[in-house]
Amino acid sequence: MPRADVEFGAQSVIPSKQSRYPSFRSFRWIAIATIENLGALDFGADLHFVRFSDTRWADALALTRSSDRFLRRHRVVTHQGFLKLLSKGSGPLAGSACGNSVIGPVVLFARPHLCGPQEETDLPIVATAAWSIPKKVAGRFAEEGSGLARYASVFDGVEINSTFYSRHKTSTIARWAEAVPDSFRFSVKMPKEITHTRAMREIAERFDIFLADIAPLGEKRGLLLCQLPPSLAFDADAFETAFKAMRDADTGPIVIEVRHKSWASDEALVLLKTYAIDRVLADPAPVWPVEDFADPPRYVRLHGKPDIYYSSYTDEEIRSFSKLLAADSWCVFDNTASGAAIENALTLLEMR
């Protein structure tokens, strides 16, 4: 663990112009700290990037913002807040740069996974379905920005669930993409017109429209989620046609959540492998229980139980799911109706 007298470096250059919304990787120096030694550190330069050796960066942010002594000496900002400062001026950021009155040095808090290649570790993406933040845990997120920007100050990704119900304007999708860091990823749920109304038949045209709708996500697009209705049984011919249409249009990662027992067959598994479509490990698991996964699941979707969409998971249950994840896995909490999803996801972050 870093000592309280850890050396800090100052960096006052403007980040790379390659991206309108630069990530922390754009900067050459980030200091290391822990919550325990933060109060003892001497911030003596214009700008500091503070990287925490654990995942409690939001707790540290809240701690410093509640400390009168710290706030009298420093200006505390998050990534999104810092970008706003950069957008107001073109010169180096100093004590009163960009027309902002600053009492002391600017202290920018960075999450561990945003701190550059030499410090970066491969970790699964922890997310929720949508990005509503309950008041109970609001203090653990950035105070500035839109709801999505605040959510992205803590989490690496999110599942866009609303695309299942209706189309969004491309301008809306673009705005979402611009609100998050470069490293953030969106998984996107396929429209119910494809999965439910058409029952995966004659989907080529509608799938192309869906891809065009979400194209503004660009490199921030993650997996596509195909969730089938409980009544939709496995039909080898019909699904081979559907999967081929999807793969003719898109080569990105796709995962499928099925709910009809007929999918528990070797023939179904072979077809999914042929078209490089990964199975979702759902909880509750109507078809593929955890024992059916020889390799770490690519996408874990936790709906809550016994009350689906409402029940919260215990720490022990969350820990058991965390042990299933690989570096390229997603773990999405879908128990959003009671607000439990965000709390459970925060718990999993602390366990990583």
Report on the architecture of this protein:
The protein has an 8-stranded parallel beta sheet with strand order 5-12-11-10-9-8-7-6. It has a 4-stranded parallel beta sheet with strand order 1-2-4-3. It contains 12 helices and 12 strands. α9 (236-249) packs parallel to α10. It starts with 30 loop residues before the first strand and ends with a helix. With 352 residues, it is α/β, with parallel strands linked by helices. It has helices at 35-38, 57-65, 68-73, 79-87, 147-152, 170-178, 192-197, 204-214, 236-249, 266-274, 315-322, 340-351; strands at 31-33, 47-52, 75-77, 106-110, 125-128, 157-160, 185-189, 221-227, 254-257, 277-283, 299-302, 330-333. It is globular. Mean pLDDT is 76; it is low at 1-36, 41-58, 68-107 and 109-121. The longest helix has 14 residues, at 236-249.
Order of SSEs: EHEHHEHEEHEHEHHEHEHEEHEH
Low-confidence region ranges? 1-36, 41-58, 68-107, 109-121
Regarding quaternary structure, how should these chains be classified? single chain
- Proportion of residues in β-strands: 15-25%
Output the number of helix runs: 12
Count of strand segments? 12
Terminal Cα span: 17 Å
Helix/strand-derived class? alpha/beta
What keywords describe this structure?
single chain; 352 residues; alpha/beta; 8-stranded parallel beta sheet; disordered N terminus
Break the fold down into its secondary structure elements and pairings.
Blueprint: E1 31-33, H1 35-38, E2 47-52, H2 57-65, H3 68-73, E3 75-77, H4 79-87, E4 106-110, E5 125-128, H5 147-152, E6 157-160, H6 170-178, E7 185-189, H7 192-197, H8 204-214, E8 221-227, H9 236-249, E9 254-257, H10 266-274, E10 277-283, E11 299-302, H11 315-322, E12 330-333, H12 340-351
Parallel strand pairs: 1-2, 2-4, 3-4, 5-12, 6-7, 7-8, 8-9, 9-10, 10-11, 11-12
